[in-house]
Amino acid sequence: DTGVSQDPRHKITKRGQNVTFRCDPISEHNRLYWYRQTLGQGPEFLTYFQNEAQLEKSRLLSDRFSAERPKGSFSTLEIQRTEQGDSAMYLCASSHSGGSRLNEQFFGPGTRLTVL
Amino acid sequence: AQSVTQPDIHITVSEGASLELRCNYSYGATPYLFWYVQSPGQGLQLLLKYFSGDTLVQGIKGFEAEFKRSQSSFNLRKPSVHWSDAAEYFCAVGSPNTNAGKSTFGDGTTLTVKP
To answer: Which residues of B touch A (CB under 8 A)?
Structure first.
């Protein structure tokens, strides 16, 4: 079990640039979640996938944000025209899709985004 | 809508002392409940979870938590704290009545351990 991995771990960008993050879930997990965590706060739900289908998006996910999971394995989160308010830790988690195991999420180390 | 409150932003305890971190939740039924620990710059590690059954649950690293329905609480405890326990702790609630599986987190409690 290699766990959830995320790449890059850190990203510094200038305001207005586009950035893309990648998440590789635990291989047997078909659920994948994205959360955002700002300093001093807990993670906030952004979106989740079951296999390749994106089933829910939070209102936090503005139209500058897009997430994909094209083959039901890894996922990407893209932020277009970044703003300083996008600076945060972006966390990915994965889980099984059945019963109580649905709620037992395993988190990756996160991608720390800094927008200058 | 579900929500989680962690009343203590920061707690300091001496090494070897006991620890209790408070968590209160708001949910219409019995939720799934979780405690996670996060070290600086790292992701979240699951300490323990409550889904149903025995209201006292044991987790990793010597932690336990007790679900009290009457108080809508799920407090985390450890009888003797080690310096390596210094970290941020998050309580979270999940919804067994939906198929979403997403969790709602509290804002965390930062634990400092004095030598």
So the answer is: 4, 32, 34, 36, 41-46, 49, 51-52, 90, 92, 94-96, 99-108
